[in-house]
Write a structure and sequence with these properties.
With 129 residues, the chain is mainly alpha-helical. 58% of the residues lie in helices and 6% in strands. The chain folds into two domains: 82 residues, Orthogonal Bundle (Arc Repressor Mutant, subunit A); 39 residues, no CATH class. The protein has a two-stranded antiparallel ribbon. Helix 1 packs across helix 3, helix 1 packs across helix 5 and helix 2 crosses helix 3.
Length: 129
């Protein structure tokens, strides 16, 4: 994995360390990161996004405590074997459901038609790299 896999939004109301944590959880749950994959160093991520290294360290430490990452002596952080074992579809849905709830609430508040919202979501998913 290289640092460019992450998408950090400094202007977001969500703290940067939480953005890193959530994105890495999804990358592992979705299979884009496999057991043993080594993550970029704290310094590499911090430099790539011009953020404080302690922010990245906090995210990595939280994921290590959860068992998603493990520390490899001399190599840094890697995806833990037990975290990368095929996560069930229900666990993967649990990671995206909060965003879907927020989207549904905002679309209803803006009185947007469900079919139009779904069409835009479908198009955005197609356009993603």
């Amino acid at each position: 994995m290289d640092a460019s896999m992450l998408h950090i939004h400094p202007a977001s109301t969500e703290p940067i360390y939480r953005q890193i944590v959530e994105q890495l959880r999804r990358l592992v749950a979705g299979g884009q990161l496999a057991a043993g994959d080594v993550l970029p160093s704290v310094r590499e991520v911090a430099a790539a996004y011009a953020i404080n290294p302690m922010t990245v360290s906090k995210a990595y430490s939280q994921l290590e405590a959860e068992g998603v990452l493990e520390r490899l002596r001399g190599k840094g952080m890697a995806v833990a074997a037990r975290a990368a074992r095929g996560q069930s579809q229900s666990k993967r849905w649990a990671l995206v459901d909060p965003a879907l709830d927020a989207l549904a609430r905002q679309a209803r508040e803006l009185e947007l038609a469900p079919d139009e919202v779904l069409a835009r979501l479908r198009q955005r998913m197609k356009d993603m790299p």
